[in-house]
Amino acid sequence: MDNRSFDSKRIALGYAKRPWLHKSVIEQLLRDCNLDETYKFKNGLDVGCGAGLSTKALRLICNKVTGTDIADSMVEVCKELYGEDQAYTFYVAKAEETLVPDIRYDIVTAAGCINWVDEKKFMSNMNEVLEDNGLIFIYDFGITDKMSGSEAYTIWYQNEYLKRFPKPFRKENKWTQADLPDGFTMEKQTEYDMEYEFELGSFVDFMLIQSNVNAQIEGGNTSADEAREWMKTSLAPIFEQGKKNLIFHGYSWYIKKN
Fold first, then answer.
1. β partners of residue 129
2. For residues 35-51, average pLDDT
3. Strands 243-257 vs 184-199: parallel, antiparallel or unpaired
4. Are 165 and 136 in contact (CB under 8 A)?
5. pTM of whole model > 0.85?
6. In terms of CATH architecture, what is 3-257?
7. What is the C-alpha separation between 229 and 256, in angstroms, rounded?
8. Domain residue limits, the chain
């Protein structure tokens, strides 16, 4: 699916309400890089910032942050949410076309966008905007077919959800050192699971902005209202009017500029 399909206010506002698991990933970064919990980078860049949740997470460990996204609507929402804070700057740009800042970035994060970029152009651009010894932190996480303590959810996800909303194609290659240009080192790659508690309504809201569902809505195969009603009805017996812990799986790649 063309990533420009995410360029709508509906998706942007939905992204702003996604689970803020980015915070846990940033905390893991400090541990993985053996940095003190009070450590601060000077100037950070968040490419593919979406509605700003990943930029907000980067701000936890960075004095000043810039967020960029290809979608006008995403940047518009970011400015609405964070625009009054002078520590944030946002502008529209492809991840491969970041402008060279007055002070080069010492950390760049790319959360959930690396599957859509031209890898060679991206790394060439990073060579221009990143200072020596700077860090590129690529990560993503996504909902799985697992709910804590529920086999019924796994059956629903595999046998009902994926049949109605199949996963759109996207690149999912795991980068290695051989994929990096001279001057960059893949220092570490990790994978992990995280849990997030949902009640039925908030989970349905979350699922409605997944690429699987959005592809079917934009393709004219269903409407957002129809998808919402089907999910609420089919998931009601699984949630049992309570809150459930859903399992997300994530990965982190740490690339150092030598």
1. none
2. 96
3. antiparallel
4. no
5. yes
6. 3-Layer(aba) Sandwich (3.40)
7. 46
8. 3-257
